[in-house]
Amino acid sequence: MMATYASGLLGGMLIGLSAVILVVSNGRVAGVSGIAGRLLQGVQTATGTAFVLGLILGPVLYRLVLGEWPAVVLAASWPIVVAGGLLVGYGSRMGSGCTSGHGVVGLARLSRRSMAAVGTFMATAIATVYLMGFFQ
Amino acid sequence: MNRNAAYRVAAALISGTIFGLGLSISGMLNPARVRGFLDITRDWDPTLAFVLAGAVIVSAAGMALVRRMPRPLLDDRFHLPETRGIDRRLIIGSAIFGVGWGMVGLCPGPALASLSLGVPATVLFVAAMFAGMAAHDRLQGARLWQRV
């Protein structure tokens, strides 16, 4: 169990390092919904494509070093997956960010907007999981 | 400046790769683990709190560094969102995002990173997520909202 928390902490620190690299070198926030959204709009496509390509390469690098893919267990039915994806896409654009932009970068900047955003999406996510638990 | 533009693309690639590696190591690529964190009344898995804590601590150190820099290494100025008030869009948007995140256990970072594994359900999720983003921009007149 402690090893799980330690790898969580280590992985988290790498995510933080990734955000530091992007802001120190490019002056930009490492917010995935923002980067993906701008890519969709055809804005900042070169850096956006490179960042998303990197995101996809990350697990490949993990596979090369550790010899196995990281676990991905998605039990939800396809209608739930589609509905969840639509809400995540719509909501992250409307709320100007997601777990990375508001969570990792916004909280580190002590942004009050990001604190409000994180508190809100944590609350609705916990409530959603709680309610769905009665139907499984 | 042209050389800097190329370096910016390289920096974005490196940043994205480390992000994807961090997600893989932390276990947060796995929707089941993320939902385990959100499931506070049943079999709670606190790992995500450690991930967020590690990320915010390192990120905060970087932000302290940024405050001492006149400009980023590869650009003329920082492109950071200016602090604005807490408005309805922020709260309602975040609330909607949280419901989708709780339903599936995926948010944009892990969703895109897990494309490398080719799991059909995550590919479907990413397609729906982009459709949701496009729907928002269409309804909002494709305005470029500031990212936080």
Outline the fold blueprint.
The complex is a heterodimer of chains A (136) and B (148).
Chain A: H1 2-26, H2 32-40, H3 45-66, H4 78-94, H5 99-108, H6 112-132
Chain B: H1 2-26, H2 31-38, H3 47-67, H4 88-104, H5 108-113, H6 120-139
List low-confidence stretches of chain B: none
Q: What would you report as the Rg of chain B, rounded to the nearest angstrom? A: 18 Å
Instruction: Give the termini separation of chain B.
Output: 26 Å
Q: How can the largest sheet of chain A be summarized?
A: none
Helix content of chain B: 55-70%
The strand count of chain A comes to 0
Mean pLDDT of chain A: 96
Structural class of chain B: mainly alpha
Q: Please indicate the percent range of residues of chain A in DSSP E strands (runs of 2 or more).
A: under 5%
The helix-strand sequence of chain B is HHHHHH
Percent strand of chain B: under 5%
List keywords for this structure.
heterodimer; A: 136 residues; mainly alpha; globular; B: 148 residues; 6 helices; 66% helix
Kindly describe this structure.
The complex is a heterodimer of chains A (136) and B (148). By secondary structure, chain A is mostly helical. Chain A has helices at residues 2-26, 32-40, 45-66, 78-94, 99-108, 112-132. Chain A has a domain at 75-136. The model of chain A has no long low-confidence stretch (mean pLDDT 96). Chain B is mostly helical and 148 residues long. Chain B folds into 2 domains: 1-80, no CATH class; 86-148, no CATH class. Chain B has 6 helices and no strands.
